[in-house]
Automatic annotation (TrEMBL):
Keyword Transmembrane helix attached: yes
Residue span(s) of domain ABC transmembrane type-1: 76-171
Protein name, per record: ABC transmembrane type-1 domain-containing protein
Primary location group: membrane
Transmembrane segment boundaries: 6-34, 41-67, 73-98, 105-138, 144-170
Length: 171
């Protein structure tokens, strides 16, 4: 009788431990899956933000370049009119001066536009990357903490079950 009750007690303890282990594994898998989904969502959001920012920057650059081209055409028209008016007096001097002014204006405008666009793109990309890294670190730390808490709870439950089972067996 004592032997059969001990076998029954051991069987009950084994069944309880197996059930607890299965529950823990399922909880850990669910937590990890949700954390992976969160990371994927964060990465998708970051990619969408980067794409939107790049598209906006490209549109701004195109608009600025169109304005620059129109301004250059206007400047060239004005220069041509001045050259035609003054051509009798100083053809060579006016042409050289006008060409130099137009070239300097074009170079300055293009350099300013390129510097501004590159600076905006670099700052936006750096901010997006920093935010993505911080979010991923937070998600990973949260996952690790969740797994540790689950493991501690399982260990405590198993110890309590074993102690109670031992006490019952001794009685």
């Amino acid at each position: 009788s004592s032997s059969s009750s001990l076998v029954l007690l051991v069987t009950v303890v084994i069944v309880v431990v197996v059930v607890i282990v299965v529950v823990v594994v399922v909880v850990v898998v669910v937590v990890v899956v949700f954390r992976i989904i969160e990371v994927v969502v964060v990465i998708v959001v970051v990619v969408v933000v980067v794409v939107v920012v790049v598209v906006v920057v490209v549109v701004i650059v195109v608009v600025v370049l169109v304005v620059v081209v129109v301004a250059v055409i206007v400047v060239l028209v004005v220069v041509v009119v001045i050259v035609v008016v003054v051509i009798v007096v100083e053809v060579v001097v006016v042409v050289v001066a006008a060409a130099a002014v137009v070239v300097v204006v074009i170079v300055v405008i293009v350099v300013v536009v390129v510097v501004v666009v590159v600076a905006v793109v670099v700052v936006v990309v750096l901010v997006v990357v920093v935010i993505a890294v911080i979010l991923i670190i937070v998600v990973v730390v949260a996952s690790v903490v969740a797994v540790v808490v689950v493991v501690v709870v399982v260990v405590v439950v198993v110890v309590v079950v074993v102690v109670v089972a031992s006490a019952v067996a001794l009685v």
